[in-house]
Amino acid sequence: MSILVVGSVAYDGIETPFGKVDRILGGSATFISITASYFHSPLQLVGVVGHDFADEDLNKLKARNIDLEGLQIDSSGKTFFWQGRYHFDLNNRDTLDTQLNVFEKFDPVIPDSYQNAKVVCLGNIAPALQSKVLDQIETPDLVILDTMNFWIEGARQDLEATLNRVDVLIINDSEARELSGEPNLVKAADRIREMGPDTLIIKKGEHGALLFTNGSIFSAPAFPIVDIFDPTGAGDTFLGGFAGWLARSGDFSDDNFRRAVIYGSAMASFCVEKFGPERLLALTPAEINERYTAFRTLAEIPVQRDHTF
Amino acid sequence: MSILVVGSVAYDGIETPFGKVDRILGGSATFISITASYFHSPLQLVGVVGHDFADEDLNKLKARNIDLEGLQIDSSGKTFFWQGRYHFDLNNRDTLDTQLNVFEKFDPVIPDSYQNAKVVCLGNIAPALQSKVLDQIETPDLVILDTMNFWIEGARQDLEATLNRVDVLIINDSEARELSGEPNLVKAADRIREMGPDTLIIKKGEHGALLFTNGSIFSAPAFPIVDIFDPTGAGDTFLGGFAGWLARSGDFSDDNFRRAVIYGSAMASFCVEKFGPERLLALTPAEINERYTAFRTLAEIPVQRDHTF
């Protein structure tokens, strides 16, 4: 079972209350693939970079065993660049600069060798492009989609057409409310699941995540982190851990979706410890296992024992 | 082991997106004692009401087996009255009217028969009054305190003196940040626990609650409620379920504190289903047990099984 990841490969300029970096590897496809690479291979990336993309960064991806046949190198321009500054509480950020560069004309072409991908991760790009990717894949077992308020507001029709072809949608709470028109998240989930995705994950940042499947609702905690250094890429990292675990295990049961949510949350909790994907590039399987166990301890509700009614 | 509850007994006028009630039984001591009465007796209430307090409402408390020797009836004025309107999302409310009435001169006097109370619940009143209550109790096993931003801002010195005498503090996330001066809740919890309480519970409304003890952090989910009708009293109800379970079991271990948080959350999830304490007055033990189990299912993280690293 191969994983296909489509999204942006970029450079980020990041300022947080704890430091500043002018230019660091970023982009949704980058975070998703680096993360998923801990769980499964082959891992196939589709994206575009410009003439300024450094060999050093290409090598970081290669070192994670990521198949780069689908990474276009467009020598006509520079790599997508985003610059932002996080506020004191790290929950909000201001975009200081966005240069789409070669990403503006990104036209995802799926190489022949990718076409039998089984787990497809559609990172946050235009819904029309996400659909175009699906047109090129033969028989995916699981399609996972990320999107954002920008597309909910600006490309709603395209988004609804794409949602109809998707198994799992991953969005945050304000996006879920906007997409459904429902303030109550349980009702919002019902409406969104009627739009296509059987499974919905609502990310709530420092409050964890909710998983809605046919059978049940699962409330996953967030890992209590003392020093959140840089939240950039945490959402994509969540998707990478989630998809990676499902591809690794090949089990799409409710229980295993829960495990996938915890692996996603665990990977995201590492991601925020350093700038960009730095922490993700230096993980060990033992650390991942340990954090999974820490999540279980964190959320463990003891059985009712004595003194019940 | 007896439970002592000190706080307000009031009438509330409530408007939510789903309905309106002009005058219904309310107040922190009311919600705490009705809730705790499902878990343990004797349950001793200390509060004050005015000449307008209805026999019908007294009888509701008596029917729950609540000892009212400490409920002063001050015929010089009317009962504390609060009126508020909730916004569409139910997370915010506007206070439309506050008439302190006899509550303005409330001077808690603990009857002789209450003085060996073992679990003491100090509802949200002036910290100086909370201290005054503690002066009158011989050897409490567990003192639980609720407070709010009004006292954090306006009576900080009194509050710090009281906190020093308390075992468990229950506040919400914005109050925790304000009290500690720390945006990060893990750091906030460390600072607050240095002020006195060994155990801290941070309530996060629709996002659940965090329990900080010496040994661990516990993240409790919120119950996903489709129809939140009226949030009034949910925080006091949490305290009542928490304290009630601890008094019932007499076990102050970390694991049992977790159970107490879930019982508190379960009771609060019932509270919001109807106006005021209506739903709480009509519960069955079977319903409480069932909801506890539903919380366990909601938060259950499966063990890592196959395919681990």
Features:
13 strands; alpha/beta; 4-stranded mixed β-sheet; 309 residues; 35% helix; homodimer; globular; UDP-N-acetylmuramoyl-L-alanine:D-glutamate ligase; 9-stranded mixed β-sheet
Could you please describe the fold and organization of this structure?
Two copies of one chain form a homodimer. By secondary structure, chain A is α/β, with parallel strands linked by helices. Chain A has a single domain (3-299), classed as Ribokinase (UDP-N-acetylmuramoyl-L-alanine:D-glutamate ligase, 3-Layer(aba) Sandwich). Chain A is 35% helix and 25% strand. Chain A contains ten helices and 13 strands. Chain A has helices at residues 28-36, 55-63, 127-135, 149-154, 156-163, 173-180, 185-194, 234-249, 254-271, 285-299, and strands spanning 3-6, 10-16, 19-26, 43-50, 66-74, 80-86, 93-99, 119-122, 142-146, 168-172, 199-203, 209-212, 217-220. In chain A, the strands form two sheets. A nine-stranded mixed beta sheet of chain A has the order 5-4-1-8-9-10-11-12-13, with helices on both faces. In chain A, strands 3-2-6-7 form a four-stranded mixed beta sheet. In chain A, helix 2 links the parallel strand 4 (43-50) and strand 5. In chain A, helix 1 (28-36) packs parallel to helix 8 (234-249). Chain A is globular, with a radius of gyration of 19 Å. The mean pLDDT of chain A is 95. The interface between A and B is large, with 54 and 53 residues.
